[in-house]
Amino acid sequence: MLTAENLACLRGERAVFANLSFTLAPGEALLLTGANGAGKSTLLRLLAGLLRPAEGTLRRPTPLRYLGHDDALKPAFTATENLAFTARLIGAPVTAIPRALAALNLTPLARLPARVLSSGQKRRLALARFALDGPGAAPLWLLDEPTTGLDAASVTLLGPLLAQHRTAGGMIIAATHIPLPLDAVRELAL
Ligand SMILES: Nc1ncnc2c1ncn2[C@@H]1O[C@H](COP(=O)(O)OP(=O)(O)OP(=O)(O)O)[C@@H](O)[C@H]1O
User: Fold this and answer.
1) Residues near 138 by Cβ (< 8 Å), separated by ≥ 6?
2) In this predicted complex, what is the ipTM?
3) What's this model's pTM, rounded to 2 decimal places?
4) Whose CA is nearest to atom 3 of ligand 1?
């Protein structure tokens, strides 16, 4: 269970949001929506533990996985090596790498250095990290505009990955400007 009570966050001394409360139960998904600058990325960073709330309390499950705007890939590493790096960090087996590549339709690109991938391919590689440990292994996924740069077919590919995570009891909080392939999703308008 994730519980946020009366959260407030300041950035540069300005209140981005205040009195923000919500809960999320296992298997649930929450979309953060709102205009540019509304505070979606700020809330995700706060939930990820990268920012501290100025007020309020937050209880969230761990471990969690966070994808920001930046793909955070190592440009000289191949797609496989990038996933191997993450697998070591999170304790996933190397045998999960081919499955993660396949989940985002990256198998033909496995040996290319990340620097030569297109922006949509880089985003898919960043998302492939979420397929490294089994669905639900990290209970909370925080996704900041996960579909940026993705073509329609790639957005569709995300559907099963997100659904399997929720079926296994995982939770998803995603900031987005476009509809995501998620069923029965709640919305938090900022
Ligand atoms: N480091 C910072 N210092 C000062 N203000 C900041 C800082 N980072 C963000 N802000 C401000 O906080 C507000 C919320 O920004 P945030 O990135 O969370 O918005 P967002 O809803 O994710 O927007 P977008 O849809 O454009 O991605 C904005 O007004 C932004 O200018």
Assistant:
1) 63, 64, 65, 90, 170
2) 0.95
3) 0.95
4) 12
